[in-house]
Amino acid sequence: ADVNVKDEDYKVLDDLVKNIVKEKQPFERLTMKKSDLMEMFKYNEFKLRILREKVTTETTTVYRCGPLIDLCRGPHVRHTGKIKSMACTKSSATYWEGNSEAESLQRIYGISFPDNKLMKEWKLFQEEAAKRDHRKIGVQQDLFFFHELSPGSCFFQPKGAHIYNKLLSFLKEEYWKRGFQEVISPNIYNHKLWQTSGHWEHYAENMFRFDIEKEAFGLKPMNCPGHC
After folding, report:
1. Per-residue pLDDT of the chain (228 residues; tens, 9 = 90+)
2. How crowded is residue 37: how many other Cβ atoms within 10 Å of its Cβ?
3. Which of 88, 89, 60, 65 is nearest to 76 (CA)?
4. How far is CA 31 from CA 50, 63, 159, 183, 225, in A?
5. What residues are paired with 211 via a beta bridge?
6. E-assigned strands of 154-206?
7. CA–CA separation, 86 vs 110, rounded Å?
8. For residues 217 and 207, is the Cβ–Cβ distance under 8 A?
């Protein structure tokens, strides 16, 4: 059955890491045959895909740390004892290789510091930042809200729209003082522009794309190509 990592699981993971740190397990770089690795990782379809699609030589590198052997280019610290302070911070869903049509996986985030003092300072900073989270304050003060019909986008209410327009006016005035001129360009362009700029070659899969009269178009990820 699928297992979802929850907040209460973080302590278990943190304690496991602490034991590994105490053992000062060395990171050992090994060169192994691709065929042997295919057999070793036959239980894991994702590792097999990496071997099939990304390893084009008869041998490749792996790292051994305690009982773990995994595909990795490295480098690493000499041993786990060098990790003085580490904590799991959050988990989230993610798609294999960022492809929304591929399998959904879990990603666990963590952070490490060279000493416990820095870790405590970071945690305190996070707590203070959470109190000032604009997403919460904005809703509490009737400035804006979010809705599932447009995830990640603000719906500004009258008070929020007033602040938004004031900030926009301030920015424009500062631009004018410095001699800038204002232009307004479209938000959507034919893919030919993105081919010229290089966006299509490198980022097409992550752009908002659609077809109009058998021509591919894309929503602009930034202003500069349209302004040129």
Report:
1. 467 888 889 999 999 999 999 999 999 999 999 999 999 999 999 999 999 999 999 999 999 999 999 998 888 999 999 999 999 999 988 888 888 788 989 999 999 999 999 999 999 999 999 999 988 999 999 999 999 999 888 999 999 999 999 999 999 999 999 999 988 889 999 999 989 988 888 888 888 888 999 899 988 877 777 776
2. 20
3. 65
4. 16, 9, 62, 57, 45
5. 216
6. 155-156, 188-190
7. 7
8. no
Tokens representing residue 176 in the block: 């004018």
Closest CA to 23 of 85, 79, 87: 79
Helix locations, 178-221, DSSP H: 191-197, 199-203
Helical (H) or strand (E) element with 100:
none
In which residue are the tokens 């050992």 written? 28
Cα-based distances in Å from 65 to 33, 40, 158: 19, 16, 57
